[in-house]
Amino acid sequence: MHRGGKIVTVRDAHVQQEILRYLDQMPQASQRQLMEFARVLVSEPKGVPGRKLLRYSGILSPEEATEMENAIAEGCERVDLDAW
User: Fold this and answer.
1) 31, part of any domain
2) Does 72 score more than 60 pLDDT?
3) Structural domain total, the chain
4) What sign has the CA pseudo-torsion 58, 64, 69, 72?
5) What DSSP letter does each residue of 49-82 carry, written as one string?
6) Residue 14's domain spans which residues?
7) What pLDDT band is residue 9 in, cutting at 50, 70 and 90?
8) Residue 45 confidence (pLDDT)
C-alpha cells in the first residue's frame, strides 16, 4: 500500500485482501466515503486532552448542568429527515 509516497506494509495480508474485496464491490461514492473514514482513523486525534479540561470540573451547579443537558437534547439531537 502507498501512503504519502511511501510503501507501507500491511501486517495482516488477509485483512488487506478482505478490504480490497469489499472495496471492489462498492460504488465509487462509497469508496470515497471509505477513503475519508480511513483517513480519519489514521490521522492524529484533534481536540484537547481530558487532563486539560479538569480545571473546568465542577464549575456548573447541578441545576446549570441539567439546564445545559436539556438545551443540548432539545436543540442538537434532532434529525431533519427532509434535509437528507
Assistant:
1) yes
2) yes
3) 1
4) negative
5) -HHHHGGGTT-S-HHHHHHHHHHHHHHHS---GG
6) 2-79
7) low
8) 76
Indicate whether 25 belongs to any domain. yes
φ/ψ of 53, rounded to 5, equals -90, -10
In a domain, 84, yes or no: no
Q: What angle do CA 56, 45, 1 make, to 5 degrees?
A: 175
Polymer length of the chain:
84
pLDDT in tens, 12-49: 788 889 999 999 999 999 999 999 999 988 887 778 88
Count of beta carbons in the 10 Å neighbourhood of residue 16? 13
- Domain assignment present for 30: yes
